[in-house]
From TrEMBL, chain A:
Gene3D superfamilies: 3.30.465.10, CO dehydrogenase flavoprotein, C-terminal domain (3.30.390.50), Uridine Diphospho-n-acetylenolpyruvylglucosamine Reductase, domain 2 (3.30.43.10). This is Carbon-monoxide dehydrogenase medium subunit. PROSITE patterns: FAD_PCMH. One of its GO terms (molecular function) is oxidoreductase activity. The lineage of its organism: Bacteria, Bacillati, Actinomycetota, Actinomycetes, Propionibacteriales.
From TrEMBL, chain B:
The keyword Chloroplast does not apply. GO terms for molecular function: iron ion binding; oxidoreductase activity. This is Carbon-monoxide dehydrogenase large subunit. The keyword Oxidoreductase applies. Keywords: Molybdenum, Oxidoreductase.
Length: 283, 824
């Protein structure tokens, strides 16, 4: 498992990283935690000439409070995100998703921004980011711009980040006091989810005032289960009401078939897991 | 010396929970793994492998690769010619077995995806890998024989020149052998008045997935050609190299240094070893090849892969009258070292612990265009145990009785040992009643059955299943005469020598070749007890044919029960020799000497000498009995007259989420009777690891090919190996019926857990779902299969696995270019 030869730079600022990216263009790959890129390089599925390592840019690390949002630096390791009190308090859904993401080694090396930029539809962070309405801050030659979660995931392994841009931080709107649950279905613990459902709900007086649901691995990108959200609004947080709403979970999905299950099975799982995720989040 | 010296009370080493003395170096890796070996001027190999399952090689252009930086040579099979030798099958199971020639580097045609077509030799491994991509091979793709059952029909030929895919048909019939009755008559009788169960079970293809990938280093610069290899079988490797390459055996030294696991996967003589030898001789310099994990999964031998058609006849009381077994076994593209011998090893175990009056077994081995198969932990016995233990549960269901009850009705009672089975084996000892009683007690069997009833009655979406497996196995391979009668190409003896060093420490040499089992610790315990020397003073040497010059290596749970007994015999010879010297030096008659706690004492006196003092005196040789050779060192070669038969009762409780098909193991109890235990800690490790490996067959692992013959489960993303996070805490205990086939009374434990656990788990899954009409779930019991079984596919065992990988690393997927880590 030896990658093809490549050059390597490790800039210490976003500006320098953007300059390196501008210089090498298509021949360059950016490495964050490397938990997906390194296997790809070692299996020689990709052979970039230049690898730009963001690991030494201190400004991309850490979690901070920014008024109505929690801001997570793109290079913050999952393990830091998962144990951060601000995340736990205001974006509990992310904390729940990170808790069982891959395995301990990956959680320590892999990064929040790297995983989201990789845009694996089976990745654990896309659905929570969608459900929370995250905003993605992307730096480019002309400065920074913000991409809404709904516009961020374009296709399999493809995001709205431009060729000459770098994801610098992710803003998670505070959903303080919302119930949250990430229901993940796997055969072995370290596996990518076969299907997972990210649910966060605001319950008022036993009624679901607002619900936001994201689906993992039910299409070529993470998906928002808007039909479920709409069906839930104003419903009592009861098993029957939630079960009825969860029946809409497969609307607009296009799940894959693979060794772990065919599309029909995934659709079935999506309905069951959606119900369970919502009930757990609401309780 | 004053007064009478009491012999010091020495704690027995046998039975102690000794921490393994080899673990520090094995776990930290600060040791000699083959890949850690670097020799002056050493070159590195990279293999060019066929991406096609079956194709004609029309041309190989190596010019660009040869021109690449620091490439020394690029060779094809044609270039190597006869120098590359040929790979052998040591067990032609029938005289007319059909076996294609197996060249290390294919010439003309490839027969599975992953087969080597060219080899790059370069100064570094990276340069070799880079240049391998420059070798231009043109193929004409041929139709591939992939599906086992279709291949058995010869619809597509894996090797067209053989004219058939059917390699060998091996049959055992108790009526013909004189060990039992006529199966067909018994089945006919049961059809008229009794019960006949007909079932078909699938043993999916598995990959041994040892921790250390295979690696070989060859140094041709000395008088003896030295081969280091991550192998279980250095002695057999040396023999096979000598037999097929023309190198005299005396000019070959093979070393298995520390080896990181094998599970049967390194019980092989490999193309990569032969190639490394051939290239080293060709270039005259040391050469190393270490496979990648992807290569290991694709091209190291696979395991299992059978279809089992089973017919069981019983009377209305559940007394089994006959068992008929028809197997199709997938050999893959070539007949490997053990090859068709793997299912034949299972032939004697389908009758298991039971007193069946009639038995017939037939296996048809079949060539396909998939990776070759061979031994995988248990080798033949897990397949047999699975089939019969699943059937006994089916019989219990048919009768409406408890599965343990139907087993008890049929099993050999403890007072009936020694017992000659319908397959012709003589079981020396055992006590199935005791192991089962203990397991039931630990499990809380009756309480769990009560809970199962409650869940069934209330229609709980989470159902509870209880799975039973009362297994035995034949291990300790072993009796050379029996192996000879089965046409196996070697014997089954084992060798040991014990060297008393002048300073009082002891070197023990064993022909067994540990690859993680803990031989150094367990053998030290045996010798320490036998000689009365400290555990720490015993050094166990193995794996180097220059040191351990004789041996038949490690597989089939043989090291302790065969190799350990050889060690006992060698140690006893040391004591006998030392006794003569002691008598001489103590001026006593040998008959008056007692040996205990490492000392010879003259009965009724205070005189005595430690064995270390005698070793020192023999080293000096100043004062030895007349005519005595100045040495205590002793050898022994032991060939048992029988196999060794561990047994046990395993009980598994499984919760099944009927909504999703998810399985959650609730409880697993096993009570194995492995005779006397040398080191309980090592046994616990073997049992726990073995259980997980067997459970993994039931639930997780499967090597899947797509319709073009590409291995889809070609990485650990898709070939699901469990970790500690996926298992529960097993409850393990033992009953003890000492084996009569060796003086230590031990039985093999290396494979027991794997053999027993698979049917216990599947039986639990099916037991949970039987009220829903489910009678089988094909392995691995994925949640999808379970869910589909519940929802109307209950009889067929569920669908075949969808042959598609998860796309995380798939370059063919759109957008895969912008793979991750990638923040843009």
């Amino acid at each position: 498992m030896i990658p093809a030869a490549f050059d390597y730079v490790a800039p210490t600022s976003v500006e320098d990283a953007l300059a390196a990216l501008a210089q090498h263009g298509d021949d360059a790959k950016i490495i964050a935690g490397g938990q997906s890129l390194l296997p790809v390089l070692r299996m020689r599925l990709n052979a970039p000439e230049m690898v730009i390592d963001l690991g030494r840019i201190e400004s991309l690390r850490g979690v901070r409070d920014d008024g109505d949002a929690i801001v997570v630096g793109a290079m913050t390791p999952h393990s830091v995100v998962g144990s951060d009190p601000l995340v736990a308090q205001h974006a509990a859904l992310v904390a729940k998703a990170v808790e069982h993401l891959a395995d301990a080694q990956v959680r320590h090396r892999g990064t929040f921004g790297g995983a989201l930029a990789h845009a694996d539809p089976a990745g654990d962070l896309g659905a929570p980011a969608l459900a929370l309405g995250a905003e993605f801050v992307v730096a480019g030659p002309g400065g920074s711009r913000t991409v809404a979660a709904d516009d961020f995931f374009v296709d399999l392994f493809e995001t709205a980040i431009g060729e000459d841009e770098i994801l610098t931080e992710v803003r998670l709107p505070k959903r303080t006091g919302w119930g949250a649950h990430y229901e993940k279905f796997v055969r072995v613990a370290h596996q990518w989810p076969i299907v997972a459902v990210a649910a966060t709900v605001r319950v008022e007086g036993g009624v679901i005032a607002e619900a936001r649901i994201g689906l993992t691995n039910m299409g070529s990108t993470p998906l928002r289960a808007r039909a479920v959200e709409e069906a839930l609004a104003g419903q009592p947080a009861t098993e029957d009401a939630v079960r009825a709403a969860a029946e809409h979970a497969t609307e607009g999905t296009n799940p894959p078939s693979d060794l772990n299950g065919d599309a029909d099975y995934r659709r079935h799982l999506a309905r069951v897991l959606t119900r369970r995720a919502i009930l757990a989040a609401a309780s | 010396m004053t007064a009478v010296q009491d012999a010091p009370e020495v704690a027995k080493e046998i039975g102690r929970d000794r921490r393994r003395k080899e673990d520090q170096r094995l776990i930290t890796g600060r040791t000699r793994w083959t890949d850690n070996i670097t020799l002056p001027g050493m070159l590195h190999l990279a293999m060019v492998r066929s991406p096609f399952a079956h194709a004609t090689i029309t041309s190989i252009d190596t010019s660009a690769a040869k021109a690449a930086t620091n490439v020394v040579d690029v060779v094809t099979g044609e270039d190597l010619g006869e120098a590359q030798g040929v790979l052998i099958n040591a067990w032609p199971i029938t005289p007319d077995q059909k076996a294609p020639t197996h060249l290390p580097v294919a010439t003309g045609r490839v027969a599975f995806a992953g087969e080597i077509v060219a080899v790059v030799v370069a100064r570094t491994a990276a340069e070799a890998r880079d240049a391998a991509e420059l070798v231009d091979v043109e193929y004409d793709v041929l139709p591939a024989a992939l599906d086992l059952r279709e291949s058995a029909e010869d619809t597509v030929l894996a090797h067209p020149d053989l004219g058939t895919n059917k390699s060998a048909l091996w049959v055992f019939d108790s009526n013909e052998a004189g060990t039992g009755g006529d199966v067909e008559a018994a089945i006919a009788e049961a059809r008229a008045d009794g019960i006949v169960l007909e079932r078909e079970y699938r043993q999916q293809r598995l990959i041994p997935a040892f921790m250390e990938p295979r690696s070989t280093v060859v140094d041709p610069t000395g008088e003896q050609l030295t081969v280091w290899s991550a192998t279980q079988i250095p002695h057999i490797l040396r023999f096979a190299l000598a037999a097929t390459t023309g190198i005299p055996e005396s000019k070959l030294r093979v070393i298995a240094p520390d080896v990181g696991g094998g599970f049967g996967g390194k019980l092989q003589t490999t193309p990569e070893e032969w190639i490394t030898v051939a290239v080293a001789r060709r270039v005259g310099r040391p050469v190393k090849y270490t496979e990648t994990r992807s290569e290991s999964l694709m091209a190291a031998h696979h395991g299992r892969d059978q279809w089992q058609r089973l017919t069981l006849a019983a009377d209305r009381e559940g007394n089994v009258k006959a068992l008929k077994v028809d197997l199709l076994a997938d050999l893959g593209a070539y007949v490997s070292l053990v090859g068709g011998g793997v299912p034949v090893l299972g032939a004697f175990m389908f009758n298991a612990i039971y007193k069946f009056p009639a038995y017939r077994f037939a296996v048809q081995t079949v060539l396909t265009n998939k990776t070759w198969t061979d031994a995988y932990r248990g080798a033949g016995r897990p397949e047999a145990t699975f089939a019969i233990e699943r059937l006994m549960d089916e019989l219990a269901a048919e009768l409406g009785v408890d599965p343990l009850e139907v087993r008890e009705r049929n099993w050999i009672k403890h007072e009936e040992f020694p017992f000659t089975t319908v397959a012709g084996l003589e079981y020396d000892s055992g006590n199935y009643e005791a192991a089962t009683a203990r397991a039931k007690e630990m499990f809380g069997y009756d309480e769990l059955r009560a809970e199962q009833r409650r869940r069934r009655d209330s229609g709980d979406p989470v159902q509870l299943g209880i799975g039973v497996s009362t297994f035995t196995e034949m291990c300790g391979l072993a009796p050379s005469r029996v192996l000879g009668s089965l046409d196996y190409g070697a014997g089954g003896w084992e060798h040991a020598s014990v060297r008393m060093l002048a300073t009082g420490t002891v070197e023990v040499v064993t022909g067994a070749s540990a690859h993680g089992q803990g031989h150094e610790t367990a053998f030290s315990q045996i010798v320490a007890d036998r000689l009365g020397v400290p555990f720490e003073d015993v050094e166990v040497l193995h794996g180097d044919t220059q040191v351990a010059h004789k041996g038949l290596d490690t597989y089939g749970s043989r090291s302790l029960v065969v190799g350990g007994e050889a060690l006992v015999k060698a140690t006893d010879k040391v004591v006998e020799k030392a006794k003569v010297v002691a008598a001489h030096l103590l001026e006593a008659s040998a008959d008056d000497l007692e040996f205990g706690g490492g000392r010879f004492t003259v009965r009724g006196t205070d005189q005595g000498m430690a064995i270390q003092e005698i070793a020192s005196a023999v080293f000096a040789a100043h004062d030895l009995p007349d005519g005595m050779e100045p040495s205590l060192d002793s050898d022994a070669t032991y060939d048992p007259v029988n196999f060794n038969y561990p047994h046990g009762t395993h009980l598994c409780a499984m919760e099944v989420d009927t909504e999703t098909g998810a399985l959650t193991m609730r409880k697993y109890v096993c009570v194995d009777d492995i005779g006397n235990v040398i080191n309980p800690l090592i046994v616990a490790g073997q049992v726990h690891g073995g259980l997980v490996q067997g459970i993994a067959q039931a639930l997780w692992e499967e090597a899947v090919y797509d319709e073009s013959g590409t291995l889809v489960s070609g990485s650990f993303v898709d070939y699901l190996l469990p970790t500690a996070a996926d298992t529960i805490s097993f409850e393990v205990d033992h009953t003890t019926t000492p084996s009569l086939t060796n003086t230590l009374g031990t039985k093999g434990v290396g494979e027991a857990g794997t053999i027993a656990s698979t049917p216990a788990v599947v039986n639990a899954v099916v037991d949970a779902l039987r009220p829903l009409g489910v009678t089988d779930v094909q392995m691995p019991c994925t949640p999808e299969r379970v869910w589909k079984a519940i929802n109307g596919d209950g009889a067929s065992g569920g669908p075949a696995t969808e042959a598609a990988a998860m796309p995380h690393f798939d370059p063919a997927e759109p957008g895969a270019d912008s793979t991750e880590g990638d923040a843009r």
